[in-house]
Amino acid sequence: MNKERVWNRIIIPLLENLVAPYSVVRRIYVQIILLGVAVLINAVVFITYQHLDWISAIYAGVNVVTTVGLYSPNIYQMPSNEKIILTLTIILAVGLYTSIVQSIIATLISRSTWNDVKARWRGKHMKGHTILIGNGSELLSAVRRLNRLSIDYIVLTTSKDIADKIKGDNVILGDPKDDNTLLSAGVKEAKNAIVMLEDDMEALLVTLKLQKLNPPLQVIVAIRDDSLRDLFNTAGADLVISREDIIGRIAASAAVSTNIAGLIFPERSGDMIIGIFHVTKKRRIKDLPDGVVPLAIIRGNRIDPFFTKETELNIGEQLVVLGNPSTFREVKELLE
């Protein structure tokens, strides 16, 4: 296990459970300050009119704010001014205290708020992770695959429904166009960012933001309108994946051959497809047509990437190849 994984998987989970509660407190610190001010006002009143020392006065002030009533001066001996001031502070303090208690309880029992705080702290401190940015169902599929591959990631989404489905403390519910939100996702120390937004123009703005905050960051963007590919490349995207192009290529390739197993992104390979063929006729690797590259031989449950041109393909084996789908018919006739 490398240093980044130890940090992300062991150290951060230990630390965040200590830091997250303080993050919640920071969200309500204004109310806590107001509560302290209310206690202080009451303490000053008791010092002025009851001649208490500071410790006793603070104790009495807390009693007033919490309405516990453990300290109560003789009302008949209290000056009128003290009665008026104390009455006003009691009314204000009780209302303030009730509001603070309700806010604290609502914040602490709200699991989504708690997880969001932890996710923001985790994202800021993670290293070498992947940032997933999106608001569609494909985001859920990407999360499932990253979990299977044990890849460290932070999800940034505007969809509460998506956030609720993913759950966990690595989901940030926020606007990916906001610099602070991207920084909370750990854009400075991330390995790469994958943008899968429904709106291409919004995805373009996020791409520009990512490049501004961390120029070396690898940015992968999935777009709907293939005509915008060059625009995204200019904006700094390292890889642009067109949804319509992928679906079109798979559909067209499947029409040519039923042996399609995958595709290579066109920016890096041209129109290249991965195919798998079941061997029903004994052949040698050298018999394959030009333009078809053998990648591996599947023998039972074992993948064998080591072979030569003279290697014989036996009946029952499978051959994984890379090539233009137009050549797959010839391969199929040769092997099947």
UniProtKB/TrEMBL annotation:
Any one annotated GO CC term: plasma membrane
Xref: Gene3D superfamilies: 1.10.287.70, NAD(P)-binding Rossmann-like Domain
GO biological process: potassium ion transmembrane transport
PROSITE patterns per record: RCK_C (PS51202), RCK_N (PS51201)
Keywords: Ion channel, Ion transport, Membrane, Transmembrane, Transmembrane helix, Transport
Alphabetized GO MF terms: potassium channel activity
Domain RCK N-terminal: residue ranges: 127-242
InterPro entries linked: NAD(P)-bd_dom_sf, RCK_C, RCK_C_sf, RCK_N, Trk_Ktr_HKT_K-transport
Pfam family membership, one: TrkA_N
Domain RCK C-terminal: 283-336
Transmembrane intervals: 28-48, 54-72, 84-109
Cross-referenced PANTHER family: POTASSIUM CHANNEL PROTEIN 2-RELATED-RELATED, POTASSIUM CHANNEL PROTEIN YUGO-RELATED
Official protein name in the record: Potassium channel protein, putative
Organism of this sequence: Saccharolobus solfataricus (strain ATCC 35092 / DSM 1617 / JCM 11322 / P2) (Sulfolobus solfataricus)
